[in-house]
Design brief:
Belongs to the TRAFAC class TrmE-Era-EngA-EngB-Septin-like GTPase superfamily. Era GTPase family. Helix content is 35%, strand content 22%. By secondary structure, it is α/β, with parallel strands linked by helices. The strands form two sheets. A six-stranded mixed sheet has the order 2-3-1-4-5-6, with helices on both faces.
């Protein structure tokens, strides 16, 4: 980059159905793990921003919750956060899974896109292209572009990185001219306390089954910087039912111990220093209706009003 090269910067919102690969793409583009990635749907609750530098451009990704038909207050707040992230962005990217195609959910998202500011560029990303044949991809691309006037279409595998270089080039060239919005060495604008909570929640989600992952939340209660450079992190896992506490703890505490070990290892890798992680499990039967819990997740409690 030369002194005469104009800098560009802006926000890119990733929207799509749950499990479309938004978090995987964010991590691929940023080059570090800044968003929770699991096989469960609806795992991204807060609008997590990951920051990528490409040439003279600073690309700030907003990883929104998956857009789905909301049933609970938490669901409604998550969907509202997703559309809030999209409406505030300089560029919107719709991710569609190649093997699922034009689902009813995708049709509903496209219908909602038509109600946003038409001046915001909207790009189409067909993800997981390694799962279908070339002719299927071409037919899906034609169908989607007939349904909405996307400014550009990209066919990628976020997990393997296929096609991501071209997408990165396009974003860097399309963002508006602007001074950079964040320091050059920053990769996310979330507080480390929240990133640590997301890491622990991911490990819980991977080990637990059925509805339990959606009935719990993790909060970083205390963070202590120690003189030796390490960090002491105290977290609480809130569950909504007494029966869930025993499941999260596991026989002889084996489940929560394994979760703690996995979360601590990832936190240490992410921060590049030693972490002392302490987990507690508590029952809060009404946490899904407490405004404070939503604030911790970066969601607006009022958006969940029916």
């Amino acid at each position: 980059m030369t002194d005469t090269t104009p800098t560009r910067a802006g926000f890119v919102a990733l929207i799509g159905e749950p499990n479309a690969g938004k978090s995987t793409l964010l991590n691929q583009m940023v080059g570090a793990k800044v968003s929770i990635v699991t096989h469960k749907v609806q795992t991204t609750r807060a609008r997590i921003r990951g920051i990528a530098i490409h040439g003279a451009a600073q690309i700030v990704f907003v990883d929104t919750p998956g857009i789905f038909r909301p049933r609970r207050r938490l669901d409604r707040s998550m969907v509202a956060a997703a559309w809030g992230g999209a409406s505030d962005a300089d560029i919107i990217l719709l991710l569609v899974e190649a093997h699922r195609g034009m689902t009813e959910g995708v049709k509903a998202i496209i219908a909602s896109l038509k109600g946003l500011d038409s001046r915001t560029p909207v790009g189409l990303i067909i993800n997981k292209i390694d799962r279908v044949r070339a002719e299927t991809l071409l037919a899906l691309s034609a169908e989607l572009n007939e349904a909405y006037p996307f400014i550009s279409t990209f066919m990628i595998s976020a997990e393997k990185g296929y096609g991501c270089d071209g997408l990165r080039d396009w974003l860097a060239a399309t963002l508006p001219e602007s001074p950079w919005l964040y320091p050059e060495d920053q990769i996310a604008d979330l507080p480390m306390r929240m990133i640590a909570a997301e890491i622990t929640r991911e490990k819980l989600t991977l080990r637990l089954h059925e509805e339990i992952p959606y009935q719990l939340t993790v909060e970083t209660e205390a963070w202590e910087e120690r003189k030796d450079g390490s960090a002491k992190v105290d977290q609480i896992v809130y569950v909504s039912r007494p029966g869930h506490k025993g499941i999260v703890l596991g026989k002889g505490g084996e489940t929560i111990k394994a979760v703690g070990q996995a979360a601590r290892a990832e936190m240490e890798e992410f921060m590049g220093r030693r972490v002392h992680l302490f987990l507690q499990v508590k029952v809060r039967e009404n946490w899904l209706d407490e405004a404070e819990r939503y604030n911790e997740m970066g969601l607006d409690f009022r958006d969940g009003d029916a």
